[in-house]
Target: Cytochrome P450 1A
Amino acid sequence: MPLMVLPILGQVSVSESLVAIITICVVYLLMRLNRIKIPDGLQKLPGPKPFPIIGNVLELGNNPHLSLTEMTKTYGPVFQIQIGMRPVVVLSGNDVIRQALLKQGEEFAGRPDMHSSKFISDGKSLAFSTDQVGVWRARRKLALSALRTFSTVQGKSGEYACALEEHISNEGLYLIQRLHNVMKSDGSFDPFRHIVVSVANVICGICFGRRHSHDDDELVRLVNMSDEFGKIVGSGNPSDFIPFLRVLPSTTMKKFIDINKRFGKFMQKLVSEHYETFDKNNIRDITDSLINHCEDRKLDENSNLQVSDEKIVGIVNDLFGAGFDTISTALSWSVVYLVAYPEMQVRLQKELNEKIGTDRTPRLSDRTELPLLEAFILEIFRHSSFLPFTIPHCTSRDTSLNGYFIPKDTCVFVNQWQVNHDSELWKDPYSFNPDRFLSADGTELNKADAEMVLVFGLGKRRCIGESIGRAEVFLFLAILLQRLSFSGIPGETLDLTPEYGLTMKHKRCLLRVTPQPGFEPQTTLS
Model:
């Protein structure tokens, strides 16, 4: 999602400036002459009138999710803006989005051909790639099969139901001890700083079967690269929307390419190590599971569409990057909300004490027994809407929606934030109220309302790691709430205003933590 389409381009000569100006004029004239013909019975998409070259970028401002939501009031749930020189259709409203992504899923399942996407996993990213439908579908099927296989892999200890539960539980307990140590030395802690490293360790565990010390250089580099990637993608790449900018120097684009090269090289090394030590009878992690399924496809004479080994790196890259950023952001927001709404924290701890007690660690199988915690997580997803948009979609052929004609290869933004704050769907949508998802007696989750919350997308491009993501957020929070109480710094007010990006983060803050009765720290970790 672009925030800026006019970056600082460095020094440009007079001749280069003249060429750029002439190019702009020629392209603009060609666009005017090449207007799309609307088929009979359909209407032209409504929307604000764009400026030449820059389009409607000035109207988006620093918070596009708010600007586009406001435009919905004028133009309806389906309208068109222009970002730079690229037409973009914006979808809002629960019914419209479900119509497009579910009932007309094939027509809206593409990805736009963005210049920057070619540098993500060398153009082999499952999430961003513009692969043909058959290739993309085969890779997605491979990834889903690998995830299902991994979900049944047993942990090293018989104490846990699966390896996933073991990774999350161990890291959750380590994080608690780490926070006690930080409190002892500093008197407060930065929630994002410590949660992000713990989540990265879980992702390392499920993807590569290893964990790192919180101070490990390799892990810190991974965290920093992911953070840089998110910031650049969230701020938008101007050359995705104004093609002639691709020939001009851009420090941001150079940095983006460098990050992807470093990240890809790191992932390639880990995947290569897995190939060297792969044992079909000992599936250690998701990478092993992917290799196993890929090997099965090579032996399958009826499989007419093979997935190259190199694309395994792209799939692992996607799972690591998306899972890491999404989950760490969700958990960090959750801790901040616990401090902002202390009465809810008390209720959640009471539920845990009554249903789980203090004799054992919460498990994934406890989800049905903790409806308030599930409702709290749903309300975090809805109220913060830290994923305001899905990754952009693209129409795979000429189509129509709500009576409007949408040509093939049109870029489509799905405004999840608008749906999660739509007053037609939610009572008092700007109020934080987990009880909205519970039955009148508070004992059951309202599944119909839960399904209306948009966070992982819908349809054929729905996030493949959703089930792991939801499980990780639940179990981390259950373990933290069972053993800790979170509070703010006296005299300081929390600011819940999100900072816009690919995933919207809360403003950095310092919090405090104290042990729950019966869970006082016993030892000190290095």
